[in-house]
Design a protein that fits this description.
This protein has 552 residues and is of the alpha/beta class. The protein contains 19 helices and 14 strands.
Length: 552
């Protein structure tokens, strides 16, 4: 059911709080009137709510005190941002505690927040939502795992729908309390390790049998334990050769766990990359992850910092009326639209430039100026939409500001290479003519640098063809290419002399990129033909726009 909440002229501030077994996390967001959102702050503080609980099924008074103090501080911080609403949930430690009402009552009175205790399956659903919404899965299906302090949530699903959800009473704090409490400061012996591993295997065996029947293309791991294990691998140089950044292989994980098990707690805290506050529970978390990967046959897992609080935000947005950034958009489409709207781009101009750039790209392929495919076309589309985003800082040198904003924004669903390519394309949409020596892509192969030069050329042309921001140019396409020349047809209504001058100014740059002279022909259309975007105009070779990624 869609929410009737209204977003005022100044936006609406909402705080999302996740009270976990190990830590409390908060995300404060401004929902903007243009249906984008801006992250105002993210906070995290360890409270060890579940410490000492799982034997007695009762949260200790000290743990309640710590949690209430942190939640009160977080709530006060959110109110300094003028937060109008709090969405707060508690997970494993609270849902299993016989004295959960004591915790909830104190939070209501001391922090003035109402906390909802969610089931394990609801926790798994929200984690899936938070992680999948921030990754580009396409047609692939993934195995998702999140290892918390008191429980582990897993799911199997694609970009928009899950097939399996499960929650297990397996967590880093829980297993540490159960199996390592007698000698918490010493190394972990091989026989202890095997006992814990068998316990985990017994708990997950039936679910593993179901998961093995699913098609799994990749694995994705969230939570502090998994992220910290990946950090240790990277900092101790145990990482496999050629392993991509943010990917943890099974072999690396196994070697790292062996290293951690051999050390007493104080020496473990000194391991490069480890979070000292996790040193006592990291081995238990590692055993859970290692057992899942071994039993399913997962060779590597991609790590992500997204999780439950991101799922709370996505769930909230999905329940709001007329909030299109959730819907059926892919994470890439959503993050590009979100970034553009957050920076107040001229959306009509951005869409015109994008439309023209894609027409030019498609027709250039038809006349064999390039042989690029869907991947390059998609990057061109997003770079074209964001090309003027630097005007948010200043119109002067806004192309340079566009580069900086795109390169340093959290564009979900893109890898760093893709972000670098889009940033450079936007950087060269005006002013300085792009040359390889100007590209900030020192680690990219020559073919990727060539891609930037070609796609930037297409945006330079399309930007010139909407120079007045009036949308006079309806179509632009290459109609033929000869040995030394390429012919570009421009279909326009009314006088578009500014646009023609702009395109002509790019002829020398075009010749340098393609080693062909650019010839421009202008055809004036009947104004009523502007409504016929998908129809061919009699006597004029105009291609219909091929379907893009849909965010336009």
């Amino acid at each position: 059911m869609k929410s009737k909440r209204k977003i005022g002229a100044a936006g609406r501030i909402v705080a999302f709080i996740d009270i976990g077994t190990n830590s409390v996390r908060m995300l404060v967001v401004r929902l903007n009137p243009n249906h984008s959102y801006s992250i105002l702050t993210r906070q995290k503080q360890q409270v060890r709510l579940g410490e000492g609980e799982f034997d007695e099924e009762e949260i200790t008074p000290e743990a309640i005190d710590r949690t209430c103090v942190v939640c009160r501080k977080f709530a006060d911080l959110a109110r300094t941002f003028n937060a109008e609403e709090f969405v707060a949930v508690a997970t494993s430690a609270a849902r299993e505690a016989s004295n959960q009402n004591m915790l909830l009552d104190r939070l209501r009175h001391e922090a003035q927040i109402d906390v909802r205790v969610i089931s394990g399956l609801e926790e798994a659903r929200l984690i899936y939502l938070g992680v999948a919404s921030g990754m580009h899965l396409g047609d692939r299906q993934a195995f998702f795992i999140d290892i918390g302090g008191g429980s582990t949530e897993i799911s199997v699903g694609g970009q928009h729908q899950f097939q399996e959800l499960e929650s297990f009473r397996l967590g880093a704090i829980r297993l540490t309390n159960m199996f390592f409490s007698e000698s918490p400061s010493g190394p972990v012996r091989p026989d202890q390790y095997r006992i814990v591993q068998q316990y985990v295997r017994n708990a997950i065996i039936h679910t593993i049998q179901k998961i093995k029947l699913q098609k799994i293309d990749l694995a994705i791991g969230s939570s502090g334990s998994i992220m910290n294990l990946a950090d240790i691998v990277e900092r101790t140089h145990h990482i496999e050769q050629n392993a991509p950044a943010g990917v943890l292989t099974y072999r690396d994980l196994k070697k790292t766990i062996d290293l951690l098990c051999a050390l007493p707690l104080e020496e473990r805290r000194q391991i490069p990359g480890i979070n000292p506050e996790r040193a006592d529970i990291i081995i238990a978390g590692g055993i859970i992850l290692e057992t899942f990967m071994k039993e399913i046959g997962i060779e590597s897992i991609t790590t992500t910092s997204r999780g439950l609080q991101d799922g709370l935000l996505m769930d909230y947005l999905s329940r709001m009326e007329n909030f299109p950034l959730f819907g059926t958009l892919s994470p890439r489409e959503r993050s590009v639209l979100q970034l553009g709207r957050s920076c107040g781009i001229n959306e009509a101009h951005a869409r015109n430039v994008t439309r023209l750039a894609l027409e030019i790209f498609d027709s250039a392929k038809d006349v064999r100026l390039h042989s690029y495919g869907d991947w390059e076309r998609e990057l061109l589309e997003y770079a074209a939409f964001l090309h003027d985003i630097g005007s948010f800082i200043s119109y002067t040198n806004h192309h340079a500001h566009s580069y900086y904003i795109i390169k340093n924004s959290e564009l979900l669903g893109f890898d760093q290479k893709e972000i670098d390519i889009m940033a450079n394309i936007a950087k060269f949409h005006r002013k300085k003519k792009p040359r390889k020596k100007h590209l900030d892509l020192p680690e990219l192969a020559d073919n990727d640098q060539r891609t930037v030069l070609v796609l930037a050329m297409f945006i330079r042309l399309s930007e010139s063809l909407d120079r007045s921001h009036a949308g006079f140019v309806q179509h632009a396409e290459f109609v033929r290419a000869e040995k030394n020349e390429v012919f570009l047809n421009i279909v326009a209504e009314n006088d578009c002399q500014l646009e023609i001058w702009g395109a002509e100014a790019e002829q020398r740059t075009f010749e340098r990129v393609f080693q062909k002279r650019l010839k421009i022909e202008v055809i004036t259309s009947n104004p009523c033909d502007s409504q016929k975007e998908e129809e061919n105009i009699p006597g004029i070779p105009v291609t219909s726009i091929k379907s893009g990624t849909g965010f336009r």
